[in-house]
């Protein structure tokens, strides 16, 4: 009885040791050898071998762990035992004659008298075998079988966890290698605002070497205020910003929250792309366009004047008057394009911005009054709804009115008779939200992606490109950004569009705008 009790205690100790080993490490080389040694001692086996064979086609190249010395080339049985275990499951051979009937044991230098093999499974998938060999006759007890099966089950779980860990670690190392090699600066923080990863390129915005920054607060090591503001923002949404480092380099920063499966923000990732070269190209292009636009104004003015005079110098017939009308119409379109180009150039340069405290409701009322006749002519309802009492905002009233005008003009243009265009304004989270919603033809996702680009005309209902300058929405975007805000679009083909201008009530002016205001 004492021997039986001692055996039970040994079994419990082994199970506890197995659980502790598996829980303490995901490395096979750490937890497998002591587990196999314990199982060998418990069963008095001469040898215990664990063979990994997840793929049937690779059983000639097996991954093996062993406890005990091989008595006589017993390892040569591995492939046969794995095949039998894969097909039959667990099996026990307790005498040489039975073993010889199942296995080819002619090559053994030392005969095997008893053998027990147990399958190891990972989520119902066969991944290997653990087998026990005895040189002397041995009858495997029920406890030995049960303990062996329990430990084989635990090994299956451990192997699954270890493989998952190895896969995750391999993916992590691969991702880390990519991030390390990328020329773009990447900074990853946790939910406490501590840096968990910073690649070498991030040194441009850090006070210390990226390797030393890990585990430190962003407030300690990030020396660029604009990036700090993005990383420390409490909003759980992606944010972007154009950042001038002050040394001639300009970066586009994107900060995206990292969310868990429970939609909880667990950190943020900030990526910085250098756009200095593109900004210079854009500046050169804008300068060229502005110069050409100025040079076009004089010949356009003369052309329009002479076209108007054609009807004054003699009698014209209907066909001639039609030609004159078309010439004048084309000249007006060119003049409108030139004016838009010059306006856009001034806005992007931050020139002529005159900010003052204004009532948003007054601007909306003026725009509605101006465009109501055009809406009535087209049988469209134009209304201002949900215009709350919003505090005065420090903006350029002329430019903000122009932005709203462009949106309303577009909405009326793309809304068929019987439709509705609604202007609204609310205060939300410290910002002014001014919206223009229509029940028009809507905008395709492909067009939405490039909607605010210069010279990009969208498609009409028939899929054809609209004739126009393609500058109206680019002007809206520039005006809003000069006020420290942004413009968003929500639209679906056939279901109308919603444009929203968001301007902070406490406006953060761009450095260029501030410099121009000081001047």
Give the topology, please.
Layout: H1 2-24, H2 28-43, E1 47-52, E2 63-67, H3 78-88, E3 91-93, H4 96-102, E4 114-122, E5 125-134, H5 142-181, E6 185-190, E7 195-198, H6 210-213, H7 218-221, H8 225-232, E8 239-244, E9 250-259, E10 265-274, H9 276-310, H10 318-349, E11 356-358, H11 360-377, E12 381-387, E13 393-395, H12 397-414, E14 420-428, E15 431-438, H13 445-448, H14 472-482, E16 486-491, E17 497-504, H15 511-518
Parallel strand pairs: 12-14
Antiparallel strand pairs: 1-2, 1-5, 3-4, 4-5, 6-7, 6-10, 8-9, 9-10, 11-13, 14-15, 15-17, 16-17
Helix pairs in contact: 1-2, 1-5, 2-5, 9-10, 10-14, 11-12, 12-14
Model description:
The protein is α+β, with helices and mostly antiparallel strands and 519 residues long. The chain contains 15 helices and 17 strands. The strands form four sheets. It has a five-stranded antiparallel beta sheet, with helices on both faces. A five-stranded antiparallel beta sheet has the order 7-6-10-9-8, with helices on both faces. Strand 9 (250-259) and strand 10 form a beta hairpin.
Produce a short descriptive summary.
The chain has 519 residues and is α+β, with helices and mostly antiparallel strands. It is built from 15 helices and 17 strands. The chain has four domains: 2-171, Beta-Lactamase; 182-274, PAS domain (Beta-Lactamase); 278-349, Orthogonal Bundle (Helix Hairpins); 356-518, Heat Shock Protein 90, CATH 3.30.565.10.
């Amino acid at each position: 009885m004492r021997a039986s009790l001692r055996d039970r205690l040994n079994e419990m100790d082994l199970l506890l040791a197995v659980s502790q080993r598996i829980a303490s490490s995901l490395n096979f080389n750490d937890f497998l050898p002591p587990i196999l040694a314990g199982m060998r001692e418990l069963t008095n086996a001469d040898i215990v071998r664990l063979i990994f064979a997840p793929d049937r086609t690779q059983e000639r190249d097996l991954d093996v762990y062993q406890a005990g010395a091989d008595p006589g080339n017993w390892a040569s049985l591995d492939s046969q035992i794995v095949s039998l275990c894969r097909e039959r499951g667990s099996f026990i051979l307790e005498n040489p004659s039975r073993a010889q009937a199942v296995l080819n044991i002619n090559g053994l230098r030392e005969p095997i008298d008893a053998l027990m093999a147990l399958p190891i499974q990972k989520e119902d998938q066969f991944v290997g075998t653990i087998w026990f060999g005895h040189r002397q006759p041995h009858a495997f007890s029920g406890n030995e079988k049960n303990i062996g099966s329990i430990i084989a089950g635990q090994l299956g779980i451990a192997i699954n966890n270890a493989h998952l860990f190895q896969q995750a670690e391999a993916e992590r190392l691969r991702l880390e290698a990519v991030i390390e090699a990328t020329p773009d600066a990447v900074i990853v923080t946790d939910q406490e605002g501590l840096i968990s990863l910073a690649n070498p390129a991030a040194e441009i915005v850090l006070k210390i070497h990226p390797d030393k920054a890990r585990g430190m607060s962003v407030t300690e090591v990030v020396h660029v205020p604009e990036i700090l503001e993005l990383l420390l923002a409490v909003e759980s949404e992606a944010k972007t910003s154009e950042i001038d480092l002050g040394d001639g380099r300009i970066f586009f920063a994107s900060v995206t929250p990292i969310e868990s499966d429970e939609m909880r923000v667990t950190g943020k990732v900030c990526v910085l792309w250098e756009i200095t070269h593109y900004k210079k190209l854009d500046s050169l292009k804008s300068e060229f366009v502005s110069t050409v636009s100025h040079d076009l104004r004089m010949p356009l003015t003369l052309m329009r004047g002479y076209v108007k005079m054609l009807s004054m110098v003699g009698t014209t017939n209907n066909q001639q008057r039609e030609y004159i009308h078309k010439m004048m119409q084309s000249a007006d379109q060119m003049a409108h394009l030139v004016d838009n180009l010059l306006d856009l150039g001034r806005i992007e340069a931050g020139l002529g911005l005159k900010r003052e405290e204004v009532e948003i409701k007054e601007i909306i009322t003026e725009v509605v009054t101006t465009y109501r006749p055009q809406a009535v002519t087209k049988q469209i309802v134009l209304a201002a709804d949900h215009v709350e009492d919003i505090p005065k905002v420090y903006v350029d009233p002329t430019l903000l009115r122009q932005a709203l005008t462009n949106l309303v003009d577009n909405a009326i243009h793309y809304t068929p008779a019987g439709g509705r265009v609604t202007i609204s304004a609310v205060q939300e989270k410290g910002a002014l939200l001014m919206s223009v919603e229509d029940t028009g033809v809507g905008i395709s996702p492909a067009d939405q992606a490039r909607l605010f680009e210069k010279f990009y005309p969208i498609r009409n209902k028939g899929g054809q490109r609209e004739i126009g300058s393609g500058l109206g929405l680019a002007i809206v975007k520039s005006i809003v950004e000069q006020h420290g805000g942004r413009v968003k679009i929500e639209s679906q083909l056939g279901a109308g569009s919603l444009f929203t201008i968001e301007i902070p009530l406490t406006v953060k002016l761009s450095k260029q705008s501030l410099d121009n205001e000081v001047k």
